[in-house]
User: Which sequence fits this backbone?
């Protein structure tokens, strides 16, 4: 494993600022740190764009919109009525979906203690959290015990479908750590009648262009460590999800998914993939 849980979330402030800039979030979910980070990266992102390469903003918007779209589909289909968003940072998704679905949906935003506390305080400035919307402390790398996904799952309704979301998390970890997380997530989802997992990832590029190298270097500096692409192609990602215990897997491309159509000309959309794993609880018969 290349990094510990305490290293995760330096991009939370940047993404929070990005969501507000693009009309996807409430101003209370933006931070001064996010504005400073955004301005600091602006020249590098402008250079990457000028060279025809990706920008972090384009990547973030594509992945966020695709995950939103697939989660909407799952809720409207009646597949899931509970969501756990791991490493939620300053994402507006919990706030927006709680507003949209009300009592139809239980939404748990989860992160490490310091970020969870800050997120809870920001949400409470917007308004009181409803009965079905809460913030919990969770370490994505913990197998059991307090602060683990297994313990959080015990607080959910075992007769209702569950979705697990990790947006922006996988890039911090190498392949072995990702495989371990996926096994943990699949095992949890199999405890519910239906389960879905949604996450973004970037495929490994054998020969990146100059603009992609600039982008990768800037991103590594930004997150204060190495960023990890995963898998050679979409088929390999799907196979890895099934090997981890998911019953089926699909990969959605930012270059073709309808939810990212508005930013299709942004090269950042083309480099992002959203993986979707699904689980059904084994029959007791």
Assistant:
């Amino acid at each position: 494993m290349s990094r510990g849980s305490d290293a995760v979330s330096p991009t939370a402030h940047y993404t929070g600022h990005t969501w507000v800039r693009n009309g996807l979030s409430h101003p209370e979910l933006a931070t001064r740190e996010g504005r400073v980070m955004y301005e600091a990266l602006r020249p590098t992102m402008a250079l990457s764009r000028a060279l025809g390469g990706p920008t972090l903003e384009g990547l973030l918007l594509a992945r966020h919109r695709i995950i939103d779209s697939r989660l909407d589909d799952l809720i409207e289909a009646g597949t899931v009525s509970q969501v756990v968003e791991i490493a939620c940072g300053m994402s507006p998704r919990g706030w927006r979906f709680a507003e949209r679905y009300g009592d139809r949906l239980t939404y748990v935003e989860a992160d490490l203690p310091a970020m969870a506390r800050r997120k809870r305080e920001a949400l409470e400035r917007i308004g009181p959290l409803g009965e079905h919307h809460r913030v919990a402390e969770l370490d994505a790398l913990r197998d059991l015990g307090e602060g683990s996904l297994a313990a959080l799952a015990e607080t959910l309704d075992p007769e209702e479908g569950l979705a697990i979301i990790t947006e922006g998390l996988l890039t911090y970890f190498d392949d072995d750590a990702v495989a371990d997380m996926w096994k943990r997530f699949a095992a949890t989802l199999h405890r519910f009648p239906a389960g879905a997992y949604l996450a973004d990832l970037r495929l490994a590029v054998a020969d990146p262009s100059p603009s992609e190298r600039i982008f990768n270097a800037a991103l590594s500096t930004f997150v204060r460590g190495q960023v990890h692409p995963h898998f050679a192609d979409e088929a390999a990602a799907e196979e890895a999800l099934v090997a981890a215990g998911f019953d089926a897997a699909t990969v959605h491309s930012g270059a073709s998914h309808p939810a990212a159509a508005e930013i299709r000309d942004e090269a950042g959309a083309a480099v992002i993939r959203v993986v979707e794993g699904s689980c059904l609880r084994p029959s007791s018969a």
